[in-house]
User: Fold 4-vinyl reductase from Thiorhodococcus mannitoliphagus.
Amino acid sequence: MIPAFGTQYDFQWTDLGDIELGRPNLGQQMPVVVYRLAQYTMREALSKRYGDEVAGDILRESGWIAGRELCINTLDTSKPLTAFLADLQSKLKELGVGVMRIEQADLERLTLTITVSEDLDCSGLPVSGTTVCDYDEGFIAGVLHAYSGQTFAVKEIDCWATGDRTCRFAITPDNAAA
Assistant:
């Protein structure tokens, strides 16, 4: 997946500002409820205005930008894939995004199945019967694109919101985008 606008977006990592300067007392930390309040009210507003499908697409695109920028600015893309994935696992845990595990990996075909437990987006949500981690799908695709230059299809196949206790993502090269 590459967003409709490709890699030509205006957001820059520096747009996040100097958090140490701006938050000398409160610092980097905030409760998950505040993140989810922003995420789910934004999803609601987008869904009401454009419909659920478009809202999901917009969240995937914003996740893709975030994943790409995080990768470019905080991860070493010169490492072999296994070392890169280990660094990604560490970074996601360090940032409180979730606990990533690799369930299956075919490094020749670049297909992966990963899980993210304690997922920032959904762990603890009520069961709704549908997957809700559109942002995560885009985020993972953006990280992998920044690492490899290839496009990836990332599909959430299990989610806390579907009654599972972890989010599971199937990742394949996106040949349709080639």
User: Anything to note?
Assistant: The mean pLDDT is 94. Helices lie at 19-22, 32-50, 52-74, 81-94, 134-148.
